[in-house]
Amino acid sequence: MNRSVKLATSLLFSAGLVLGVQTAAQAQTVEDGVFTQAQVDSGKVVYDASCKSCHNMRFYRDTLRSWNSQPLLYLWENILGTMPADNPGSLMYEEYTDVIAYILHENGFPTGDTPLDPDNGMEEISIVAP
Ligand code: HEC
Fold first, then answer.
1. Cα 83 to averaged position of ligand 1 atoms, centre (Å)
2. Number of compact structural domains in the chain
3. Which CATH number do you get for residue 119?
4. Domain residues for 79?
5. How many CB atoms lie within 10 A of CB 42?
């Protein structure tokens, strides 16, 4: 490992500590099973009640395409700050997280054993165009 790689690694690691991220920077994508089936199931309920009326799944597919390779956390923050458009920020954090799990699943991404958690490693999960 050369000096600058070492430095970059330790910077990333300290950033992780500051944010309370437990894992060392480990690249993951939404293809790696980063949410659970339980989150998908709860997310569907939230989606049907709060998101379905204004967008169809095609819209989310296009959104995921335009967010290709961005951290999933940024999309979560964006949705949290702006949606539902008629009442932004009105859902609980967990509901936003579940709704993202549902949208990802509907776009063909797999479930896994570890729940998606905005406080834990979500910045290191990249979006992949469906
Ligand atoms: C009252 C209508 C309405 C509801 C309900 C609504 N949205 Fe939106 N949404 C909009 C509008 C308007 C825009 C911005 C214009 C556009 O891109 O179509 C938007 C944009 C978005 C975007 C694009 C963000 C970007 O920057 O690429 C996402 C993702 C999104 N909404 C997700 C959701 C989710 C998830 C829910 C449910 C929690 C939801 N929306 C509920 C109207 C709505």
1. 6
2. 1
3. 1.10.760
4. 28-126
5. 18
Q: Which atom of ligand 1 is nearest to the CA of 100?
A: 35
For ligand 1, the distance from its centroid to the CA atom of residue 82, given in whole angstroms, is: 7
Angle 12-65-111 from CA coordinates, rounded to 5°:
70
Q: Is residue 19 part of a domain?
A: no
Give the predicted TM-score (pTM) of the model. 0.84
Gap between the Cα atoms of 38 and 113, Å rounded: 10
Joined together, the tokens standing for residue 60 give 């989310």
Per-residue model confidence as pLDDT tens for the chain (130 residues):
556 655 555 555 555 555 544 444 568 999 999 999 999 999 999 999 999 999 999 999 999 999 999 999 999 999 999 999 999 999 999 999 999 999 999 999 999 999 999 999 999 999 999 9
